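re: ur question from earlier - yeah i can do the single chain one, its not a big deal. heres the input i used so u can compare w yours
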Amino acid sequence: MTRVLVRYFAAAAEAAGREEEHVAAATVGELRDQLLARYPRLAAVLAKGSFLVDGVVTRDPARPIRERVDVLPPFSGG
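and the output i got, formated as tokens:
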């Protein structure tokens, strides 16, 4: 399993209580499960938020991850 740098932004950082950390995970699904177990308050953010993996925004649990994943809260806009 790969250790990846996980960076949290805005509401995700507030829910996790940190801006970044290293986590061992191979896919977005594995990472999501670990983060939800570790930080239950992230559930509301991840329900509508997404992950930025290799420059691609995704919610696909099977997506492999390599070095860095950004946890993005839902964005509003018009």
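The chain has a mean pLDDT of 92. not sure if urs matches, ping me
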